[in-house]
Design goal:
Layout: E1 21-22, E2 26-31, E3 34-35, H1 37-54, E4 59-60, E5 69-70, E6 74-84, E7 89-100, E8 110-114, E9 119-120, E10 124-131, E11 137-145, E12 153-160, E13 167-179, H2 182-199, E14 202-207, E15 212-220, E16 225-236, E17 240-247, E18 268-271, E19 275-283, E20 288-292, E21 313-321, E22 328-336, E23 341-347, E24 350-357, E25 363-370, E26 375-382, E27 392-400
Parallel strand pairs: 1-7, 2-7, 8-11, 9-11, 19-21
Antiparallel strand pairs: 2-14, 3-5, 4-6, 6-7, 8-18, 10-17, 11-16, 12-15, 12-17, 13-14, 13-16, 20-27, 21-26, 22-25, 22-27, 23-24, 23-26
Length: 410
Amino acid sequence: MKLIFFLFLLSAFAVSAMAIEQFPEISIKVTGKKVSGEFLRECIGEEILALSRRYPGFTAGLDIPLPSLNAGESLNLPISAGYRGEDAMKEVSLLFRVKHERFLPPETTFHLFSDHPEMLSGDGRLLSAGLIFGRPVTLQYYHGNRKDSSASRTIYLQVHNPGPKPAALQIIKARAGPSPYEMKVGHQLNVSFLRRFADNQGVIIEIPAGSDRIVATHEIPPGQVASGLILMHLIRGSPQDLTLFVRSDGETTPPASVLSDEKDMHARGIYDIPTIRRTIPFRGIQELTIPIGDRPLRNLFPGQPLKGDYGVLYDLVLLLHNPRPRPLRLDFLFCPRGGAATGTFLFGDELVELGVVKAYQVARIGHMELPPGGKTQLRIRTIPEGGSSYPVWLIVRGEIVNSEPTGDTR
């Protein structure tokens, strides 16, 4: 059944004597198992931000709780807003129509990565690529604004539709920062993205023929870093052009020049392994070591390989078997191998966060116990975290529980 909510929100403005202006309805389509009110607020906030770029002094209030939406449900949200006219503030009426769409999770085919130059010292293009139908991509950026910078810098991701018909994209995205703490930014990004990725929580946007749309922005003050991870899936339309760029002047068009630094060895490019899938058997009490972020990925562009596999999804299925006549306890451990690192794991369906772990020390992700002769599968997903030192090891250790034997199952 379609569930319609009518929510009314008033904001105070200095209003001219003119009649209230009715803006065109704004349609928002969201995806996911269940879409939270917090996510709906974020989606509506982005539309309000887009309006603020078009109308000077545009303001709109959104300070009440929003309901979550299940598949097929809808939300109608009228909002009063205002913007600065020629002589005075003008009051406008907005109507947001939000609908939850049923949509299958996408399988990515390429990983786009932007970490060059890591510290931004000017305006310019950071990465350009294409997006074609049925070939979803992930894009991760990780950049900082130099401490001696005279102004904040804003990262934009623009999608340009050069085709003769409208295009539609599903987008799942998360961001973290700005913050002066590099490891904190990388960790918070993965916590947010893995939650949304596991629930397929995203938004479907439409781009008219021959037009552009900014789908992500991120302001970075001097001396701070920021990062974002964005999954994009073209579900209708001709190939789209993607441009990631940075500006400090408030303009939202890509600069003509590419920003680069010959001395900066950080990676920038396109990589054809966005997901690393492995099915691994584990039997008995031996120790199993699974490296994460241990092999540089080849760059399809001229440029550095991606060392550490940052932004790449590791999707591991462990086939666990206890052939012993006693219960078997299994511990799943996290061990950095080069320097301090943080980690975020989907341990089955549970999200597990690990704070800073020093090199060669271990932290427990989780544990379980298998009965004599027991077999099960465990799915573990993780993404190497920006600001941390990868590779790391995922270690599985088995230990026989001290109890009376119940029979030989080998």
